[in-house]
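Hi team,

Filling in the usual template for the complex we talked about on Friday. All components are listed, including any nucleic acid strands or ligand strings, so the model treats them as one assembly.

SUBMITTER: L.P.
PURPOSE: interface mapping
COMPONENTS: two
RESIDUES: 1566
SEQUENCES:
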Amino acid sequence: MIDFLHRMLDGGEARLGVKRSLLHAAIALIGVAAIWSVASVPLTPGEQAVFASITIGIFLLVNRFPGRRVTVFLIVLSGAVSLRYIVWRVTETLEFSSFLQGILGTGLALAEAYAVVVMVLGYVQIAWPLDRKPVPLPDDPAEWPSVDVYIPSYNEDLSLVRTTVLAALAIDWPPDKMKVYILDDGRREAFRDFAVSCGAGYIIRPDNAHAKAGNLNHAMGQTDGEFICVFDCDHVPTRAFLQMTVGWLVREKRMSAIQAPHHFYSPDPFQRNLAAGEHVPPEGNMFYGLVQPGNDFWNAAFFCGSCAVIRRTALEEIGGFAVETVTEDAHTALKLHRKGWHSAYLRLPLAAGLATERLILHIGQRMRWARGMLQIFRLDNPLFGPGLKLGQRLCYLNAMGHFLFAIPRVVFLTAPLGYLILGQNIIAASPLAILAYAFPHIFHAVATNSRIQRNWRHSFWSEIYETALALFLVRLTIVTLLSPRRGKFNVTDKGGLLENGYFDLRAVYPNLLLALVLLLGLGIGLFCLFFRHNDELTFEALLLNSIWTTISLLIVLAALAVGRETRQIRRQARIRARLKLSIWLPDGRVIQGITNDVSMGGCSLRLDTREEVAAETGLLIDVDVGPETVLLQGRVLQSESGSLQVDWLPRTIAEEAAVARVVFGRADAWIEWDSFPIDRPLRSLIHVLVSIRGLFRPPVRVPKQDVAAMAAAAAAAAAPVAAAPSGGKLARQTLVVQPRRAALQRTLAALAVLLLVAAGGAQAQTKPAVGAQAPTAAQPSGTDLRPPPGPVPFLLPSPGSPTSTSSALAPQPATQTAQSGSPAGPTRRLVLTLRQLGVQGPMTMRGTSAIQGVLFGIRSDEVVTAAQLTLEGATSPSLMPEFSNITVTLNEQYIGTIPVDRDVPTFGPVAMSLNPVFFQDSNRLNFRFTGRYTPDCNDPMSGLLWATVSDTSVLSLTLERLPSPRLLSRLPLPFFDQRDKQPLVLPFVLPAAPGNDTLGAAAIIASWFGQQADFRGATFPVAAQPPPEGNAVVVLAGREAPEGVSLPPVNGPTLALVPNPNDPLSSLLVVAGRTGAEVINAATALVLGSHTLGGATAMVQTPVVPERQPYDAPAWINTDRPVRFGELVDANQLQGTGYAPGTFHVPFRTAPDLYTWRKRPFRADIHFRAPPGPVVDVATSRLDVGINGLFLRSYSLAPSAGPLDWAFRQLGFDEGPQAAGTAIPPYMVFGQNDLGLYFDARPLHRGDCTAIPEDLHMSVDPDSTIDLTRAYRFDRQRKRAGARC
Amino acid sequence: MPLICFASPKGGVGKTTLAANVGGELTRAGYRVVAMDLDPQNSLRIHFGDPLQDTSFYAAGLVRRGSWRDSLRRTPSGVDLLPYGQTDHAAALALGAALADDPALIAGPLDDMLIDPAIAVVVDTAPGPSAALSAVLPLTDLLVTVLLGDPTSISLIPMIESGRAYGRATVSALGRAPGSASAERHGFVLNQVDLRTRLGPPLASAASRHLGNRLLGVVHRDENVGEAVAAQRLVAEYLPGSRAAQDIKVVARVIAARLASGNNIAFAPAPRVTRQAQAVS
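RESULT (copied from the run log):
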C-alpha cells in the first residue's frame, strides 16, 4: 500500500509512455461511457422501479462480502445510481412555468447536485483509508531529533493548561532534546510563575497579531528544535506521543508533519445532551477515524492545529504557519503540500482533550472552522494553483466544500414547504417517479456510507450535526464567499461548569423557528390530506411532501434537543481505567486494589478485601501504570465494603505531575476511543428518534447551595497548588523564559556516597558495550529518559522483570568517558588495510556512483578507544578544486574531507583521526565524491569525473577489551565473533593424556567452530594449561580440573563458562563429564543445541541425534526442492545502492557428484527490483547473472508490463518484482559455487545540466530460488545403470 | 530436589517470614515443600500455626541421627515442617560444634530428601555465620539473601558480594564470583521497603539498579505481616489482598522460574494427584 502511494507520489503520470497513456485514457473513457449510459438511459417510472430493485438487490447481495475491493465496487454502484438520479432531475424534472417555481426548483436541484458531488468526493476521500503504523526510532536515543513542544494559550484557565504542561513534560524523550514552552498570548503572571515552577519554558510577544498562528510563528523565532510539536492547551498528551510519531519524520526526510487524532475524553454536546448520545461515536471520530486516514492515502492528511509534529525546515520554507485565514492549520498544510512536502496521519489516540462543553460553544467553533475553510477556498483554492496532485486537490476540495453544506441543508429541510405552503410544484414529476428515482439514490448513499463508516459514525447522525449548525452558517457562508478577508479568530472556551440544566435559546433559536414553520407546513399538508378532496396525483404529492416535512421536522427536533443542556457539575471528567494499585493505610497495613475510574481530582477504586476505611483517612497510593509505579497522596472521601472514593492531595508540582502521569500520561490511556458498535442504519434511526424524547423530559434542578459546595470542592481538589493565582499581567514585550529541566528533580545527596560504596565492587559490569541496545519506543522507559521527579514518586522496577532492570542499567551513553573510574582492560592495536577489510581493489568513484564504502565489524567484546585512518589515492586532474572533494564518513558521521589539487592528482598519505564514539558493532566507512569540471553544466557521466581511494589505505584501531557476559545463550560469543574477519585462533586445553572420547569431543567442538569461521580459517592450538591471555575451550572427563580453574559441580554432561584464571576478562568454555561418554554428549549437545542453552552453567541432556541421511550435510544445498536465496545468504546482502551496487554473491556448496545432461540444465528463478523508467535508462540498464565467474545471461531492467498493469496498480494491486529465469549449465556447478548477480544501471541521459537521481536501491528478491532437483547423484546413477544391466 | 536456603549476615531481616511464606506460595503453586528450620530461635513453626508449647524437634536432635521422615509434620498450609525444636544455649553450641566437625550430619539427610525430584527443600538459617549454614551451602541450589530496605543492609552488599559473608569458596561455587555477571544461584530479596520514608524509594531503586537480575523481588513494609504472624498464619492466608502477600507471591514465582531455568534441575510442580496421594499417605 505504501509502495503504491509512493508510486503515486513519486512516479506520477509523467513516467508512463505516451502509448500507455493513450491506452489508459481509452480504458477510462470506456468506463465513463459505461457509467454515463447507466446514468442516462431513459426508462419509464415502472422500469426505473425495476432498475432500482435490481441495484438494491445487487447491493444486498454484494454487501455480504467483506473487503475493500467490494467496497470500491459498491461505491461505484452508488455513484452511478446517484448520477442517474441527478441526470434525471436536471433533464426531466425542472419546469419554469412560473418565476418562483423556476427559482425554487433550480435551487433544490443545485442543492442536490452539491450533495451528490460532495458524496462522490467523500467516496474518493475515504475509499481506501491508510492504516499507517508507527515507525521505530533509531536504537540510539542520541540520534533522536530535538523537539520543541508548544502549548499556545490565550484566555484559558490555568487549571486547564497546567495538566497539559505537566503531561507534556512527562513525554518520554531525551530531556536535553525536548523543550516545552507555554506560548501565552494572555501575558499572565500566573502562567509565567507556573512555567518557572514546573520547569517549562514561557514565551510571550509584544502584540497579538494573527492570533494562534502569529503566536506560534513568534515562538518559532525564539527556539531552535528540529521539530515543532503543538498541543492546544486542553490536549493532554500521553507519554508515548513523540516516540510514536517522530519515527516517521526521521525516516521520511520529505515528510513535513505527522498528525495524531484529537480525542476527547469528555462527551461532546451531542453525546451529553441527546438521550442516545452515549451509544454513538463522538462527532469527531468520523474525521479522525476515517477522513484523515483517507486523506493520508492521497498524501493529503492535514495538520489540525494540535497534536501534531511539524518539521521546522518545512515550516520555514513556507514562511511559518499560515496567517491569512482563521484556520491556520489546514492552510499551513495546504501550503506545505503545494511545496511538495508530504504529510502523514497516525490513527493512534496519543492525546486527549476536553470536548466543547456546550452547544453554543460548539457552534462558535464550527463557525470559525467554516469561515476559515471558506476563506482558503476563496483565497487559495486547492483546485487551482501549483504543486498539488489530483488526489490532494480533491481531498482539500472536499474538506472545504464540506463547509458549504449550510445552504443546501436548509434547502433540503424546507423544500417540501414550497409545495405545502407556497403551492409550487418544484419537482415536475409524479410522486411515484420521484420515489423510483430518489429512493435507490438515498438507499445506496446511506447503505454504502454505513458500510464505510462502520464504528466511526452512525447513520443519520450527520444530519443532526449539520442541522444544528446549518442556520448559523447560512449568513456566514454568503459573507465569507463574497468577502473572504473578514473575520477574526475566536477562542473556543472549554472546561466550564454548568450548574443547572437549561435550554440554551441562543444556540437553538433559528432551529426553533424552523421547527415552527415545518410544523405549520405539516399541519397544512395533513389538513389538505384529510379534509380536502384530492385527485390521486395531488393526494400522492401531499402525502410525499408531508412525509418529507415530517422527516425534516424530526431532524430539526433532534437538533433542538442538543440545545437542552444537561447539568455538568463535575469539573474533572472521570476516565474509566483499570489500574492496579496498593493503598498504604496509616496503621501500616498495605492493601491491593484496582481503580474503576481516575481523574485529576481523584479516583474510585475497589480493594481486594472488604476493608472499611474511615472517611478523611490520609492514604498513600501506589499506582501501577505499566512501565513504572507512581506514588500519590490521597484522602478517602467515602468507603463502602471495599469500594473507596479517593481525592488526590498533591502538595507539590512534582506530585501534581505524578497525578497527570497516572490520569493522562499512560500510553494506553485512550485505546478505547473507537470502541463503539458497528453502524446498523435501522438501529441508528431508532437512536435518533429516541434522542428527541430528551426535549420533553422534565428539568432536573439542584438546590443552589449544593451546587456551590460541589463546585467549590471540585475546584479545590482540582488545583490546590494553583489556588490564589496572581491576576497580574505582564507587559507587552517579547519574553522568553527557557525551560529548566532540573525543576522537578531533587536528590538526597547522602545516598550517593552510600551507593557508590555499594556499587564499587561491580563497577566493571556497568561498563557499556558499544552499540548497546538502547530502550526503544516499544517499552517507554521512564527510568532512562527522566529522573524521578521529587523524592516521592519513584520508579521501582517490578521485581524479576528483566526489561525494567536492564533498562535501569542501560542509560549510560556509549562513550568511554563514563568509565574513568574503572580499571581499564587490556588494549591491543590493529592495523588493517582497506583490502583486509574486504575491498577488492582501488575504490573508484565516478559522477554516477559517487559513494563507495567498506563494511567492517568490531568484536562485541572490544571497544574502540582510538582510531586513525591514513588514506592514499588520486583525483582527476580536470576537477575544479573549489567544487570538488572526497568526503569521508564513518556511519554517516563526518570524518574529514580530502581536497583536490589539479597539479598533483595523487594525494596521501592523508591521516585523519576518528572519534571512537562513532564506532558501532558494524560500521560503514564511506567515501563520497563530489566533483565538477566546469562551473556550469557538468555531465555526470563524463569520464573526467573520477577519484580513487587506494585499497592500501590503512585503518589503525586501538581496541580495549570489555568483560563479556558469560552466558551460554550467547555462544559462540565470545569465542568466535561473526564480525571479526581475522582467522579464528582458539586454544584447546586438554588433560595430559587425553582419552579417545576427550579427543573426539574436542574434535566435535573444533569442527563446530571451524564451520562457523568459514572463510576466515581457524587454528586450534592445544595446551595443558589455560592460555595466559584470551579465551579457550577446556575439555575434560572426570574431575581433575586444570590448575586455577574453578569448576562447577560436574554431575553429568556439563557445559559451563568460567573466567580464565590467568586473564579475568576472558572466558573458558568448559565441556565436561564424569566419563568420556558424557563429554562426548556435552560436546554434541553444544553443537546441536547451543541455541537452547542459557545461564553460565548447564547440565545437558543427551541429545537425540537423528540418523544421518546421504547428502544431509548442513553446508550442502538441498537438492530435493528449489532453495531460496534467502536461505543461502542474508537478505541484506542482496540489496545495494547506486547505479552499480557491485556484485551480489550467492554462494552454495554441494557434493561434487551431481550429474545431469547438457540439455537438462539447472534453473535459477531470479526476481529483482530496480527503480522504474524515469529514474534509470531502462533500455540500457541490465542485470547480469553469472556463476563461478562465467557470464550466463543479461536481463533488461525494462518492465515487461502488460496493458492492464497500470489499471491494476491504480486499483492497489501490488506490482511484483521482475522475474528472470536462468539456465545454469551443469558442468559449471562444482563443489563450491558462487552465483553472481550484477546490476549495471545507467542514468537516463537528460543533458548536461540536470542532476541525476542518486541513492538508488536495487535488490534481488530473497525469494528467488535455485533449483538443483534435476540432478542425479552419481552413485544413484550407477545403481540405476547396474540394475538395468 | 532443589534446595533453597534463606540466609543473611544481618538479623531481624525477615528470613524466617520469607522462608515460611515462600514455602507456602510454592506449595500453592503445586510443589511439595519441606521447610527445615536450622535457627535455634525455632520460630519457623510459628508461621505454620504450630502451638507455642509444641516440643517436637528435628534439628536439635541431629546429633542423635534420627530419621527426618519421623520428624516431618504436615502443617495446615500443606508445607511439611522440620522444626528446630526447643533447646538451650549449650545444646545449640554443641550442635554447632558437632556440625562443624561433621557436616554430613545435616548434608546426609538433605541429600536423602533431595533425591526425590518432587520435593523442594526450604531452609531457614540463623543470622550471620553458623556451622549449619556452612554445612548447607554446598548443597544449595538457590541461596536467597534477605536484606532490609535500610542503609545498614545496603551497606552490607559489598561484603556479601566479596564473599566475606558466606565464605569465598561458597560464593564462587554459587556462581557469584567477583567480576562475574552470572547470578544464577544467588539471589537477593529486599524486605520491608517503606515508600513513605524519604530514604525508602531511592534506596530501593538504587539497590535494584545495582543488583540487576540478582534481585528476586521487593517486599514492601506492610503491617499485615506482623498481624499474620500474630495470628500464626501465612500472610497469603491471613489477608490475600495485602501488598505483602502479593509481593511474596512475586518472589516465589521468580524463585520457581529461576530454579526451572537453571536447567540442571528438573523442577516442576508435581501433578496434583500425586500431591494429594502424598497427603493421604
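MY TAKE: Chain A touches chain B through 66 residues (CB under 8 Å). The mean pLDDT of chain A is 81.

Thanks, L.
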